[in-house]
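Supplementary Methods S3. Input chains for the assembly prediction are listed below.
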Amino acid sequence: MSCGGRNMQSKITINGIAKIAKVSKGTVSRVLNNERGVGEKTRERILKLIKDLNYKPSAIARSLVSLRTNNIGIVLPSDFGAGISQAFWPSILSSITRAAAELNMCVLVTTFNPEEEAVEDSYKRILAEHRVDGLITFADILGKRRTAELIAGRYPFVSIGRDDGMRHHFVDVENREGAQTMTEHLIELGRKNIVFVCGPKTLPSVRARLSGFKDVIGKYPQVKGKVLEVPFSSHEAQKAIVGHLGENRAVDALFIGAVNFVMDGLVACKHLGLAIPGDIAFACFDELDFFKERNLLTSPITSIAQPVDELGREAMNMLHELLKGDVKGFHQKLLPTTLIVRESCGEAKAGRAN
Amino acid sequence: MSCGGRNMQSKITINGIAKIAKVSKGTVSRVLNNERGVGEKTRERILKLIKDLNYKPSAIARSLVSLRTNNIGIVLPSDFGAGISQAFWPSILSSITRAAAELNMCVLVTTFNPEEEAVEDSYKRILAEHRVDGLITFADILGKRRTAELIAGRYPFVSIGRDDGMRHHFVDVENREGAQTMTEHLIELGRKNIVFVCGPKTLPSVRARLSGFKDVIGKYPQVKGKVLEVPFSSHEAQKAIVGHLGENRAVDALFIGAVNFVMDGLVACKHLGLAIPGDIAFACFDELDFFKERNLLTSPITSIAQPVDELGREAMNMLHELLKGDVKGFHQKLLPTTLIVRESCGEAKAGRAN
DNA sequence: TTGAAAGCGGTACCAG
DNA sequence: CTGGTACCGCTTTCAA
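Predicted structure tokens for the full assembly:
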């Protein structure tokens, strides 16, 4: 038995329908697109035929004439399937996909490796080949140069996160404000010696959060703030934290600047025998599922939550607006973060903790 | 300044090239597709033009004539961005995307909610509209009825995981053998009272693993095996485990049948004050990043690892074969699992632990 | 080796 | 209200 060969998906086309209905394909097209100017009986006859034969117009053919595919591309880092930050990618992809579906659009996944200079990144290819109408990118991943290329090429895209000084459409979270909020929170709780762990300052989001931290520290002379800038790669953070905390027993708060470092932070504390929140307050920018539960790790962890779902939805909707073409200037949207107070910073105050 | 409007991606087409090169578009088409029968000089002239103008043929137009899009769809559960099993989805998606890229294909993400009966699932739509040439699905998610529909419609698809008794192309892991291996392992280590925690038997993978467990238990009269079948939803597993282990202090091994339950298992043990592996051996079907490290959770966890990368790659390649059309009968591929011995089952024996 | 023309499955416009 | 036709960008004969 042969099962291969031609793909059997409805070979029937608009011509087929037209022929059977004994009308021109123009008429069929009209009922397909719900246009007026078709006799009631004809319309119904055609509609029935369409339903009976389970006919669906070819998106390809439609695209050819409309010059729009109704597909958008999302540009992910090639290693999005690994590591703890992986929690972010499926979430954002999921929200984008959902938003896209509501707009009758489809999402095409592209990956690229920020580390290496490819001959041609695949996201450029799908753009050039007209496989997609536009792109959703990530400022932290894409980098300034590539973003500039997209701008120069006048490709429609919206970035999640932003590169300062670049003019493009974006939706971003209030990283700076979020970091400020958390720092203030720690200080209000009486912490006086805070360590902030963050990734490389090359990333826009890192810079924003870092500056938020520094802003607040600068306002309180009696509070000491220390920044630990470490690469995202394997456990540098852990070593750095153990190193610093080991030598500075006065540190009473650890502010993890990105979810990537939570485990390192937690392990470091355990390593040093530091009780949370007894000996040290533990806070994290970004929210993770297990933060909320009293599990075997620690007490529930206080965090700054990003509105990931909204981020994806807004990006998708913004891109859709762009594509419709009636956009003047730049769309830039900032989404607020939420401080979720739990137990890891001590003295559980009132606050939304779920 | 208006930035909206027409998408500027190279408006230049094959006609433009032809015109400038003063040849017919047929000729341009020939050089594009690397066909013979074009004068050396003409070819080079055209090639240069293509490069200079950075021309890329429209995938849309090509698809229209070839009736192939070179896109494939992947059908994910709508909540793939949540929960701990989320670790699986980005990994598999990533590997599929990489494999697709090598074949010059693109991946279109579709989601659907197994719980609810949609008017029309979007994966059917993209198929009907010819947005994709074929699908990669997941047996555990799609379910028998929907799989049957795809078969009946003669749509090209390969399933990851399989429904017993259904004839279709698939690639699967040796769930049964994996569960057997782990169970044997526990018994060899001297464990005599093993609890197996698994999800609903409606899922093919659950059935396979369960039968593997039972097979082995059946072979050893002196070993007691107990199955705890629980829903994947929130912490039913935890309650069930605490309940059972609380009443049966003789249990000396916990075999978690799917990664979804690890946390529940771990928390349950902690709750009961059971030391791992002192009081109880802890094993898990599926591998998670943090299993390998001695972290704050437990000792490194012994597991059965699925070859996720291979799974995705094989599925993609198999689908590609199908699409080429030269496939007879059914392609079905089984991938072996790997027992990774670590410390959570006691008596660290020799074995690959990394 | 090359050009001309038909056609893939639709949309859009014009005449009737 | 409806049919006819040109055309979207490319591939594929068929002649020349």
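Residues 308-324 of chain A form the longest helix (17 residues). Residues 13-15, 25-26, 28-30, 32-33, 57-58, 60-66 of chain A lie near DNA strand C (CB under 10 Å from a C1').
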